[in-house]
Amino acid sequence: MTASDIIRDLQLLPHPEGGYYRETYRSAHTLTTTEGHTRSVSTAIYYLLENEDKSHFHRIKSDELWFFHQGQALEIILLTPGQPTRLTLGPDFAAGELPQAVVPAGVWFAAQLKRPGYGLVSCTVAPGFDFADFELAERAALLREFPQAAEVVERFTRL
């Protein structure tokens, strides 16, 4: 299978942060957030990165769980105090790759493939994803907040 086959067969669309996605689940059950917004209890998507695609730095207001399916290992970079934290999703558990990882609510994060090819994952968000809770990073603001991470901030942000 190629990335094009998967994009076609799973009916994936371009994602604003980079890569391709399609929502596959949105809970009919809702909750009210501490900010007073109504959100689905949980949502899920397929997400695919291909070759040089990047998921640019962004954050959401909910926890996000990532699940590896197939293809190349995918690195998730989280901006935390100190140096960036890196998690690798992939099939080689002996090499430290993980089948799943959690990105905590409110943390800036980005992703890329470790090697050329494609990586197919799923992401589950709880409380459920809403684009109103999505914030794409601005380079200058991230550089002020995380000057020690300038190299990754510049690589994973748009001007």
UniProtKB/TrEMBL annotation:
Pfam families from the UniProt entry: Cupin_5
Domain DUF985 positions: 5-137
Coiled-coil intervals, chain numbering: none
SUPFAM superfamilies registered for this protein in UniProt: RmlC-like cupins (SSF51182)
Superkingdom classification of source: Bacteria
PANTHER family (UniProt xref): DUF985 DOMAIN-CONTAINING PROTEIN, RMLC-LIKE JELLY ROLL FOLD PROTEIN
Protein's UniProt name: DUF985 domain-containing protein
Source organism of this protein record: Hymenobacter psychrotolerans DSM 18569
